[in-house]
UniProtKB/TrEMBL annotation, chain A:
Protein name from the UniProt record: Xanthine dehydrogenase molybdopterin binding subunit
Gene3D superfamilies linked to this entry: Aldehyde oxidase/xanthine dehydrogenase, a/b hammerhead, Aldehyde oxidase/xanthine dehydrogenase, molybdopterin binding domain
Coiled coil stretches, renumbered: none
Keyword terms, alphabetized: 2Fe-2S, Iron, Iron-sulfur, Metal-binding, Oxidoreductase
Source organism of this protein record: Nocardioides donggukensis
Lineage: superkingdom: Bacteria
Matching InterPro entries: Ald_Oxase/Xan_DH_a/b (IPR000674), Ald_Oxase/Xan_DH_a/b_sf (IPR036856), Ald_Oxase/xanthine_DH-like (IPR016208), AldOxase/xan_DH_MoCoBD1 (IPR008274), AldOxase/xan_DH_MoCoBD2 (IPR046867), AldOxase/xan_DH_Mopterin-bd_sf (IPR037165), Xanthine_DH_Mopterin-bd_su (IPR014309)
Gene: xdhB
Cofactor: Mo-molybdopterin cytosine dinucleotide; [2Fe-2S] cluster; FAD; Mo-molybdopterin
Family note: Belongs to the xanthine dehydrogenase family.
Domain Aldehyde oxidase/xanthine dehydrogenase a/b hammerhead, residue spans: 27-133
Enzyme Commission no: 1.17.1.4
A molecular function (GO) term: xanthine dehydrogenase activity
Automatic annotation (TrEMBL), chain B:
Region of interest (Disordered), residue spans: 152-186, 215-254
Protein name as catalogued: FAD binding domain-containing protein
Domain FAD-binding PCMH-type: 247-424
Entry superkingdom: Bacteria
Biased composition (Low complexity): 237-248
GO MF, one annotated term: 2 iron, 2 sulfur cluster binding
Coiled-coil annotated residue ranges, if any: none
Biased composition annotated in UniProt, kind: Basic and acidic residues: 169-178
Alphabetical UniProt keywords: FAD, Flavoprotein, Iron, Metal-binding, Oxidoreductase
InterPro entries (alphabetical): 2Fe-2S-bd (IPR002888), 2Fe-2S-bd_dom_sf (IPR036884), 2Fe-2S_ferredoxin-like_sf (IPR036010), 2Fe-2S_ferredoxin-type (IPR001041), 2Fe2S_fd_BS (IPR006058), Beta-grasp_dom_sf (IPR012675), CO_DH_flav_C (IPR005107), CO_DH_flav_C_dom_sf (IPR036683)
Record bears the keyword Chloroplast: no
Length: 828, 540
């Protein structure tokens, strides 16, 4: 057991504690950025002027009419920017654009005494636009060869040889939608400037250091002149990793120009129409299996819809390519990725960060191919699991692969799956109009930032003379319970009761150069740094205690605020020891630092070991589908998930359940729609409010929801043996979509292969039911031995990344090609 | 009567928030209760969507408790008070004049000390019911309203059977949807209008189902036994044109008259006034689309619009009763409406929304019209003429004239919805939407069929979402009437039904799906009721 992962006796980590702010949450006293406005005098309010075109040149901008509106104080335009007019780090995101790149793009911002006055002022700003041609859908972008950024390939073996040796080869494609984060708290920044010109921005940001960096470069300042603080976020989910920066810069610019505090809070429609979302993807593929259903080869081209600028699209794509394999060994594989440029919001990080999109491709393939291989989908999945000794397509050994099988068996046992499958079959035999489906799917998810440099963190821990402890670290709290875990880590390392430790809000002037709180790595990285700082302090205290107790330092123990030693009955309290140590002139505070060891990644070759470890999980879901409407309910979900040795079991349980439901929302309910017609509204987001973009509510919660943490799951490479938990459970929701597929198949004859739209809304399910009902077994394309020339008559052409306009045809995706969905005017 | 001058000079008084009087001076007619509360520093209630969809702004408001009395089931105030959860983002602050509000801060007695937590807060905190915490104060208030709902714990709730929550309970989707209750009588639909993006809801449900009953001395429980706050006549002046630099506000006046006659007289004088009932639709226009009506005339508390009587040959529903009140007062006597209620918005919306408002906006996707069309309902429209109140009755089937236009004339108010008796024996309301709770219909279908001796004697079918107005499916009604209730009739009628209306493609559904759902809806009705008998509890 490593020193990092070993737990002392009496550890506070591992206790199931409520969120550290729970009482503040329930009483309404927890403060979020916009709540500070009521406590801020003379605040100005910002409102954007949003362009009504998907793509246009700004040919004129007249702000005077707005300035004549009562209450309007100033209109911010490009001319006001003292530094760099860019909201990103790649210089492809002008903060005040002269070329509008998406419908709703903010051209300038109005500052006024009230939000109402700012809104009316924005209505009066006169902007001239010269519309330009636009591309708003992914297929259109592919056809137009509209791409941006890198086009990486992950490759192992010889995919041609693998397909040739396969006895069953299938080809197809899938297109699936993105997802709106819909954090309940929309983007918000509140900026002010102090008497010395120091800019202070309170922001709902997952990445305060980068917000600081961009505010500084927009204002033409150096980083030490800008401080960013994040009290807490009302949800982030990746949506506040990159997107807050430009908004914070607008607020800061307004504050420096007016000398007054400026509040910029997007309302829901502004947030939906201006900020990035999860990337939707298109994938075309060919896959080969042997007669036992073992995967032999996979060739796929994944194209993400990046929106108007690169943002985080490249790392998202890299993670997607690194997760297509999910839990499965594919000997010969070639995965190519591209990022389409479309005139839409710049798509960005979202919980899973491409992982879900990559995994969806292969899970969809397995779900579609199992009936055609004559195999139960669960059996097909199980046969293809990684085993110890195998490596991913990018070359990383799959450590602890046996946990897949362990979790799989545990879900089968505790979920009573065998008996329930029989029950489902009985139900389906008795009910012509309602069918149930039960499916089980695995998750393997790599933990660490693909970009190695981000895998570092800092902390600053103070012990005051009275023994009280204050910790600062670089991670932000968005509801995931990071602060709760950090308090537990500090209390454990120092050997004090939890209430001895307090946590200060995340600020860039306490811990510099922090990484985004993202990639599920918040607890791993910041926990390592907090632990390091606490160990330094504990080491000094131990030395002092050894002197006081007259024992060697190795004999000293500190537990639950009591200091003692082997070989003596004498004890000190923590406070007594701290007090004495202060008078002995010993440093009672420390800066901690952590970097994840053993990572290496070649982003050009797309090879290496980018992940410290993999998190595993298995979920079984049962649904019931109404054949008349396509409506459905999730009857039961059983999950076994690997969080290592949990730092905080109640927090981890919440992450698993919440991630699962959010994933189910993405796959089945949440339905982003853009106007893809060629009229004036082209590129307009049609689902731009809570009434049109529906997130899961109580009605989507699994009626029975059993979650267990995998036992004996110690992770040697992470703090106190734990594993990251933020993202991996989201992908357990594939079980819901696969259960829907199973239920739909039950409307058809045995062996029906179901092609299911994604998101699998009631409408998508309904059309799949219609297709399943009309399915006749003899229509199923045959799969048989490959001919002498390596091809078969019913086989689609292979994907060719160099010929994006010639996509392979899917024999299984009629709705994508002019079947039930293509004529519905939704353009997807 | 109230003159324009009086309106211009009016000032609202104050509201009691968490036991403390807070002046309403300075609000405009479009200031929401949410913005007003937050401006007071009570920032627990949050804006998540500003359109009544997420519930993050939910607060408790004291409302008169009403109950059905006698054989007729007439509505009558009990003299007591009820705590009702409302979306503060939709509620005009002016409507709080003289009222009592409790927020999450108030439930805890103003502090976060664990020992002072309200039972609802205690359960949510201990069970991991909050993660980011942003939606939590809203959940707390919605949950507290259900905690205090009269009759919750003794099982005399308006909705629900003890076996609720058991997915096997009912074979019909509507029945299963309507009854989701904990062992403590907690109706999960009370939280259907609150969204949480973090938890996945399971710990919130468990917290709700773990609640006991209010302890002796619980101030909010005791408050229920005292009279509700009076509703004063309230006036908020229109903002002067060229308003002060410091306010930067616009918008017209707000007026809450004391009687129907007064309301109609004002409406006769100011036909441009926008009638305001539950504000669940207008509030969205104000918040999301910047609507600033010249005059708001609040009619939601007019006593003449808040009666309910079920006697003789009809049921008469006051147009300004909230959907929640109608549901409770009808006490399951109109099964078709029981299918409707749980699918109409969320509890937070139903606590404010009224039938008058739903019919008054004339929306083609309102959920009440298809149900009421199937019930053969008519509307009573009242106006002020020659110094008195004049009424006329319009069949709902003739009421809608075009997209959001109706036969309601300027100066007219909907006062009552009249449902003729006896009710049809076989009724259903099918709502097709992406989400089961609180979504807007892609298609809604109301059915009311009389099937006797295996033959359809009479058929009424109302449709929503398939045309510019809610419509009757007359061709389908004809295809059913006088024919045997069997496979053949249904198959033919379902094809006919699929061709009724002129559905559109939009972000909710394709036209093709909408049309298919019409036909499927009839097939489903038949599959579930191949041999219909009168439903239990139906008014014969």
């Amino acid at each position: 057991m490593s020193r990092l992962s070993e737990r002392p006796d009496g550890a506070v980590v591992g206790e199931a504690l409520p969120h550290e702010s729970a009482t503040l949450h329930v009483t309404g006293l927890a403060l979020y950025t916009d709540d500070l406005v009521a406590r801020t005098r003379d605040c100005l309010h910002a409102w954007p002027v949003q362009a009504p075109h998907a793509h246009a040149r700004v040919t004129g901008l007249r702000v005077e009419p707005a300035l004549n509106e009562p209450g309007v104080v100033r209109v911010l335009t490009a001319a006001d920017v003292p530094g760099v007019n860019d909201a990103g780090i790649k210089e492809d995101e002008p903060l005040f654009p002269t070329e509008v790149m998406f419908h709703g793009h903010a051209v300038c911002w109005v500052l006024a005494e009230t939000l109402e006055a700012a809104r009316r002022g924005a209505e009066r700003v006169e902007v001239d636009y010269r519309p330009l041609p636009s591309v708003v859908d992914l297929r259109g972008a592919i056809a137009a060869d509209s791409f941006q950024g890198a086009q990486p390939t992950v490759q192992r073996g010889d995919v041609g040889a693998g397909l040739a040796r396969s006895t069953h080869v299938f080809g197809g494609e899938i297109e699936f939608a993105g997802q709106e984060h819909f954090y309940l708290e929309t983007h918000c920044s509140l900026a002010h400037v102090d008497e010395a010109g120091q800019v202070f921005v309170q922001s709902s940001t997952q990445h305060p250091s980068e917000t600081q960096q961009i505010v500084a470069h927009v204002l033409g300042l150096r980083s030490h002149e800008v401080t960013v603080q994040c009290l807490r976020m009302g949800g982030g989910f990746g949506g506040k990793e990159m997107q807050p920066h430009g908004l914070a810069a607008i607020a800061a610019l307004g504050a420096t120009l007016t000398g007054r505090p400026v509040r910029l809070r997007l309302n829901r429609t502004q947030d939906l129409t201006m900020t990035g979302k999860r990337h939707g993807f298109h994938a075309s593929w060919r896959v080969g299996f042997d007669d036992d259903g073992l995967l032999q080869a996979l060739e796929a081209t994944l194209t993400s819809d990046g929106g108007w600028s690169l943002d985080l699209s490249e790392p998202v794509l890299a993670r997607a390519l690194c997760h297509v394999d999910n839990a499965y060994w594919v000997p010969d594989i070639r995965l190519t990725g591209r990022i389409a440029r479309t005139h839409k919001t710049s798509q960005t990080a979202f919980r899973g960060f491409g992982g879900p999109q990559g995994m969806l491709v292969l899970e969809d393939i397995l779900g579609r191919c199992a009936p055609r291989l004559g195999l139960d989908p669960a059996e097909l999945r199980r046969r293809n699991f990684y085993v110890d000794g195998q490596a991913t397509p990018y070359g990383q050994p799959v450590r602890h692969a046996e946990r897949l099988a362990t979790a799989w068996e545990q879900v089968h046992a505790t979920g009573d799956l065998a008996a329930r499958q029989e029950e489902v079959a009985r139900f389906n035999a008795d009910h012509p109009h309602r069918k149930r489906g039960l499916a089980v799917t695995p998750v393997k998810f790599g933990i660490s930032f693909n970009l190695t440099a981000f895998n570092q963190a800092g902390a600053l821990v103070h012990v005051y003379k009275d023994g009280s402890v204050l910790i600062n670290h670089g991670g932000t709290e968005m509801g995931q319970g990071l602060h709760t875990k950090m308090l537990q880590v500090a209390a454990t390392t120092l050997g004090v009761p939890l209430d001895t430790v307090r946590l200060a809000p995340t600020r860039t002037d306490k811990v510099p150069n922090t990484s985004a709180t993202a990639a599920s790595s918040g607890a791993d990285l910041n926990g390592g740094a907090v632990k390091d700082a606490c160990e330094q302090i504990r080491g000094r205290l131990t030395e002092a205690a050894a002197g006081a107790l007259g024992v060697p330092p190795g004999e000293v123990w500190i537990r639950d605020g009591v200091v003692g030693a082997g070989g003596t009955d004498r004890t000190l309290t923590w406070a007594e020891l701290v007090h004495a140590v202060y008078f002995a002139r010993v440093q009672l505070f420390a800066a901690g630092y952590y970097r994840t060891e053993g990572l290496h990644w070649d982003s050009t070759a797309m090879r290496g070991s980018p992940f410290k470890y993999f998190a595993y999980g298995v979920a079984a879901a049962e649904v019931e589908v109404d054949g008349f409407t396509g409506g459905y309910r999730t009857r039961r979900v059983d999950i076994v998930h690997d969080v290592g040795d949990s730092l905080s079991p109640l927090v981890d349980l919440g992450q698993i359940e919440g991630g699962f439901v959010q994933g189910a929302g993405w796959l089945t309910l949440e339905d982003l729609r853009w106007d893809t017609g060629d009229g004036e509204g082209t590129g307009r987001l049609a689902t731009q409010s809570a009434s049109t973009y529906k997130l899961p509510s109580f009605s989507e919660m699994p009626e029975v929801f059993n979650v267990a943490l995998l036992e004996r799951a110690h992770e040697d490479g992470a703090v106190y043996g734990s594993k990251a938990v933020g993202e991996p459970p989201l992908m357990l929701a594939f079980s819901v979509r696969e259960a829907l597929r199973a239920a739909v198949a039950a409307f058809g004859p045995p062996g029906t292969s179901v092609d299911l739209g994604c998101p699998s809304t009631p409408e998508a399910v309904y059309w799949a039911v219609v297709a399943a009902r009309s399915h006749r077994p003899e229509e199923t394309p045959r799969s048989g031995p490959t001919g002498a020339d390596g091809t078969r008559p019913d086989e689609p052409p292979p994907p060719d990344p160099d010929a994006p306009a010639r996509l392979p045809e899917s024999e299984l995706a009629p709705h994508l090609l002019g079947g039930p969905r293509a004529d519905v005017g939704e353009g997807r | 009567m109230t003159t324009a001058q009086e309106i211009a000079e009016g000032q609202p008084g104050s509201a009691t928030v968490n036991g403390r009087a807070r002046g309403l001076a300075g609000i405009t007619s479009h200031t929401t209760a949410l913005d007003w509360l937050r401006g007071l520093g009570l920032t627990g209630a949050k804006e998540g969507c500003a359109e009544g969809e997420c519930g993050a702004c939910s607060v408790l408001v004291a409302r008169p408790a009403i109950a059905a009395t006698g054989e007729s089931g007439a509505a009558q105030a009990t003299g007591g008070t009820e705590w009702v959860a409302l979306n503060a983002c939709l509620l005009p602050a002016a409507g709080l004049d003289g009222q009592e509000v409790v927020t999450a801060e108030g439930l805890a007695g103003g502090g976060s000390a664990p020992e002072r937590l309200h039972p609802v807060q205690r359960e949510l905190a201990d069970r991991g019911g909050s993660q980011c915490g942003y939606c939590t104060p809203g959940f707390v208030c919605s949950m507290a309203a259900e905690y205090y709902r009269p009759g919750r714990a003794d099982g005399s709730a308006e909705a629900g059977d003890p076996e609720a929550g058991d997915p096997e309970a009912g074979d019909h989707e509507a029945e299963r949807g309507a009854t989701e209750q904990g062992p403590n009588g907690f109706d999960l639909h009370a939280l259907g209008g609150n969204l949480c993006r973090c938890t996945g809801y399971r710990p919130i449900r468990d917290a709700a189902y773990a609640l006991g009953t209010p302890a002796a001395g619980d101030p909010l429980a005791e408050r229920r036994d005292r009279p509700p706050p009076a509703v004063p006549a309230t006036r908020v002046s229109p903002a002067p044109s060229g308003s002060a630099r410091s306010s930067g506000s616009t918008g017209g006046g707000y007026l809450r008259p004391g009687s129907l006659a007064e309301a109609l007289e004002i409406l006769a004088e100011h036909p441009e006034a926008t009638v305001l009932a539950g504000s669940t639709d207008l509030g969205v226009e104000v918040n999301l689309r910047g609507a600033r009506p010249a005059y708001l005339l609040a009619v939601d508390r007019l006593p003449e619009l808040r009666g309910l009587a079920a006697a003789g040959e009809q049921i008469r529903l006051g147009a300004a009763l909230s959907l929640t009140e109608v549901e409770r007062l009808l006490a399951r006597r109109v099964p078709l409406l029981d299918d409707l209620f749980w699918q109409f918005g969320s509890r937070l919306v139903r606590n404010a929304a009224t039938l008058g408002g739903n019919l008054g906006t004339g929306s083609p996707i309102g959920d009440a019209p298809p149900a009421l069309l199937a019930l053969d309902a008519s509307l009573v429209l009242a106006s002020w003429r020659d110094g008195g109140v004049v009424e006329r009755v319009v069949d709902l089937a003739d009421y809608f004239t075009g997209y959001r236009t109706t036969r309601r004339e300027p100066g007219e108010l909907i006062t009552e919805v009249v449902i003729p008796l006896p009710l049809a024996g076989l009724t259903a309301f099918h709502k097709i939407a992406k989400r089961r709770y609180d979504d807007i219909s892609s298609v809604a279908v109301g059915f009311a069929l009389d099937v006797h001796g295996g033959e359809v004697r009479r058929a009424r079918i109302g449709l929503g979402g398939v045309a510019a107005t809610p419509v009757r499916a007359r061709a389908t009604e004809e295809a059913l009437t006088g024919r045997p209730w069997d496979d053949r009739t249904v198959a033919a009628a379902a094809e006919r039904l699929a061709e009724e209306g002129t559905p559109l493609d939009d972000h909710r559904a394709s036209a093709r799906y909408r049309a298919a759902m019409l036909g499927e809806s009839l097939r489903k009705l038949y599959a579930e009721h191949p041999d219909p008998a009168l439903p239990d509890g139906a008014l014969a």
